[in-house]
Amino acid sequence: MNLNLDPRPYAVAARLASVRRTIAVSGFKGGVGKSSVASLLALASTDCGRKTGLLDLDFSGASCHLILGVSPGPGAAFPDEIEGLRPPEAHGVRFMSLAFFTQDRAVHLRGKEVADVVMELLAVTNWGELDVLYLDMPPGISDAALEVMRLMPDIEVVGVLTPSVLSRSLAFRALRFSEQSGVKTAGVIENFADDAAEGVDTAEGFKVLARLPYDEGFEAALGDVARLRQTKPYRVLGKAAI
Amino acid sequence: MHEWALSDGMVRAAHKIKMERGLKEVVSITVVLGEVQDIAPDIFTEIFDEVKRQQDGFEGTKLVLEREPAEFRCHQCGEAFHFDRGLLPHEISENIHFVPETLRVYIRCPACQSEDFEIVKGRGIYIKEIVGETGDGLDADTGDVAEGRDAR
Ligand SMILES: [Zn+2]
User: Cβ contact (<8 Å) for A101 and B10?
Assistant: First the structure.
């Protein structure tokens, strides 16, 4: 008789044992700026002295490395083999991405494979002691997102949305769904925010953690951390300390 | 080593089974190592001997390693195929070793060149069998006096 027992789920909890808080940055519609928000949150957190990690789990659109100006490839930053894989630091952020292993090439994965990669990265990444780990989540409520919630039941979801009615409606429905599945919501971050909504601190019962103004210089700052730190969204997030 | 984390997960999994079956000692663990992930048996054994000290009842545990050849099937044309790991450049081989699914970036279906294929066999590591002793000479599963062993 074959047990066919996968040892990786048993490794996940141990790898995350010294991580105090895990925040899953989720977006429920394309173009809301989920990866930018996740990267800026990690940068702002490390800049205010917290031990911070960032894990890019959005494999089909892996972009945190581009935002933070990390170029995977020969001779560049690569995880170290120390009791698993210790992520390299990007501007102080312990950063892990599938991009390190694909030489930055796109890899098109099916549902089960995505779940396998999520599990593999969670099982082998040696984060060490962290105050906070940010996850750039797979889009929406996909199989991959559900796998993350199953493996890491203590995550707190931060939903990224825009003023668009569609983005809000999808986000609120998804957040209510994940809350029904027992996953906590820390709140929402409104990206490309209108001034009109200033001062509103809840949205459909969810706490508004930050409202990020549109910054015309943001696109040009991608990949350049010194310039990212000058942008309006970074400054708001630096003060919000999420 | 990267294998340390997998070995650690393996001992934790074995510990859970040991508790479930009420075993006093784990005599052996049989682990299958897939060709795609390509974990070196000697390195894995060395790490296991270190990691097993974290838990009680594993002092004398023997590690039995089996190798599973890789087998792929193309989603586009149905072709079943294999690969020769030795032909891959070292760096690519390392990437696949860390995350087996990245194989899809580096090799293609030999019949139709598609990158959309499935790893049917030999992906990674799994526990095939755990043999233990209950200490009172009883098989943990059936209660039969079966050489004090519980294998399943
Ligand atoms: Zn084919």
Answer: no
